[in-house]
Design a protein that fits this description.
The complex is a heterodimer of chains A (about 170) and B (about 110).
Chain A (H helix, E strand, L loop, with lengths): L1 H21 L3 H21 L3 H26 L11 H24 L17 H10 L3 H22 L5
Chain B lengths: L4 H21 L3 H25 L1 E2 L2 E2 L1 H32 L13
Antiparallel strand pairs in B: 1-2
Helix pairs in contact in B: 1-2, 2-3
Classes of the chains: A mainly alpha (about 170), B mainly alpha (about 110).
């Protein structure tokens, strides 16, 4: 059952991910990306990472994709015209991809340690949010505050970039 | 039967390959940006899988999930700044097609 659900979510994620690359209209690409992220969030749930799954839906499928759609509609992008294929670039891209997938296969086939099922918890699993929060506010407190500064800088940077005239 | 670590890593690698293919093959700068997000998410999936399969004191290794949390935050900031740059670029050039943006090419 668990393997069946894994394949359903993985197929959803990969098929819509391929849709992002293959569809010509940017709005369809964005919609496919939302579905792909929902599949990915479901995979996070199968890994007992509920907090990360929810964050993935809220931040990616919610905020980030709204921003993408907003910009696509603001710029009024039309479906891409079919241009003549750049054959060397395309061949290069496909060669890089084939090499990457080949290396991935070799690495995964080389080590039998990857083929064990999920280890069962030895301690009762209560709250995932509590554990991530505890790690975030104790061990990773400094990076957490630096992230806050990063978000502030990004906000100011976006406001400056979006002004009509840069002085 | 249960999915193993190899299943998750293979799916995450394939998602990364799809994103990489999009960056290499597509010509619309916004779609390229979306494919970058796909690649970041693929990395997140393998990090969460490693965190679940490596138990510390009987529970998942939450350091991996905190790492994913930071990646998602930085990616959100990156999307905001990147889209602002794309809008500024569109104002200056009226195009989002990468082959029309070649003034830095020698």
């Amino acid at each position: 059952m668990s393997l069946f659900l894994f394949w359903v979510f993985a197929a959803m994620m990969l098929a819509f991910g391929a849709g992002v690359v293959l569809l010509r209209n940017p709005v369809s690409s964005a919609m496919c990306l939302v579905m792909s992220f929902l599949g990915l969030a479901s995979l996070f749930f199968t890994l007992d990472a509920y907090f990360i799954g929810i964050i993935q839906i809220l931040v990616y499928a919610g905020a980030v994709m709204v921003l993408f759609l907003f910009i696509i509609m603001l710029l009024d992008l039309k479906a891409e015209r079919a241009r003549k294929f750049n054959i060397p670039a395309m061949a290069g891209g496909i060669a890089v991809l084939a090499g990457f997938v080949g290396i991935l296969y070799k690495v995964l086939a080389s080590n039998a340690e990857y083929l064990h099922a999920k280890p069962a918890f030895t301690v009762p699993f209560t709250s995932d949010v509590k554990a991530v929060g505890a790690a975030l506010f104790t061990q990773f407190n400094l990076p957490f505050q630096i992230i806050g500064v990063l978000l502030l800088v990004a906000t100011i940077g976006v406001v400056v970039l979006s002004k009509k005239e840069l002085k | 039967m249960e999915p193993t670590l190899a299943h998750y890593l293979a799916v995450s690698g394939l998602l990364f390959a799809i994103g990489l293919g999009g960056v290499l093959l597509r010509r619309n700068i916004i779609v390229i940006f979306m494919c970058l997000e796909l690649m970041l998410s693929a990395a997140n999936l393998s990090l969460v899988a490693f965190s679940r399969f490596h138990l510390v004191n009987g529970l998942p290794d939450y350091n991996g999930q905190v790492f994913v949390f930071f990646i998602i935050t930085v990616a959100a900031a990156e999307v905001a700044v990147g889209l602002a740059i794309i809008v500024a670029l569109y104002r200056a050039r009226q195009t989002t097609h990468v082959e029309d943006l070649n003034s830095l090419k020698f």
